[in-house]
Amino acid sequence: MIKKYFYLLSLWIIAGFVGVLGAATLPGTATAKEVVSSIARGGMLYDNWYTVLKAGKPKENHPLWPTANTQEKGANTWRCASCHGWDLKGDNGMPGLTKLKDADPAKVIAVLKGKKHAMADEFSQQDLTDLANFITKGQFDVDKYIDRASGKAKGNKENGVIYYNTICAKCHGLDGKKPKDWDSVMGAITNESPWEALHKIMNGEPGEVMPALRAFGPQLSADILSYAQTLPNKR
């Protein structure tokens, strides 16, 4: 009886140990549930895909760019944000993408690979997946975090200063006047284009080492933006 008890106990311990090993994830192994990094990279592709992919800048206007709009031309007309807006609600007379929130990413990929968008030759399958994940899984109501009329962030600047000074200031300086080769400064940029600034805080800057803070949620990014808007707007 005692031998049988210890035999069953041994089997139970071994089964539990094997279960733990099976559930463990090896370092560096992505899981199906972890899509935040894909969404953030998709956000950078949405911002400026040819910089992310180190591809040549398109010289001609995108086929879908409105001919009446002559303010932008060439490469900028190929950036997703130029047509669909930093808030994904549409810009420059082009439609928004808010209806695609929670949609099947495969639907977005099919559109991107179609003749009108002509991205099949530029994007790998991973690129298409990341951008589709951003459009379908990465959307949130930006109006909850930026006042539409004033452009002011609806954040806690007292909380934002903590994160700005410990993360952002390493590259942008405590006064927001770095890097020195910038055409502008943080205070001016975040007030002139707060929706673009929030997008970059969430997803990172294409071609730069700026970290994406998407994993911490939009409120933290709004807090940082709120503080950044108080920084000097001139050098």
UniProtKB/TrEMBL annotation:
<protein>
    <submittedName>
        <fullName>Cbb3-type cytochrome c oxidase subunit III</fullName>
    </submittedName>
</protein>
<dbReference type="GO" id="GO:0009055">
    <property type="term" value="F:electron transfer activity"/>
</dbReference>
<dbReference type="GO" id="GO:0046872">
    <property type="term" value="F:metal ion binding"/>
</dbReference>
<dbReference type="GO" id="GO:0020037">
    <property type="term" value="F:heme binding"/>
</dbReference>
<keyword id="KW-0408">Iron</keyword>
<dbReference type="InterPro" id="IPR036909">
    <property type="entry name" value="Cyt_c-like_dom_sf"/>
</dbReference>
<dbReference type="InterPro" id="IPR009056">
    <property type="entry name" value="Cyt_c-like_dom"/>
</dbReference>
<feature type="domain" description="Cytochrome c">
    <location>
        <begin position="155"/>
        <end position="232"/>
    </location>
</feature>
<dbReference type="Pfam" id="PF13442">
    <property type="entry name" value="Cytochrome_CBB3"/>
</dbReference>
<keyword id="KW-0479">Metal-binding</keyword>
<dbReference type="InterPro" id="IPR050597">
    <property type="entry name" value="Cytochrome_c_Oxidase_Subunit"/>
</dbReference>
<keyword id="KW-0349">Heme</keyword>
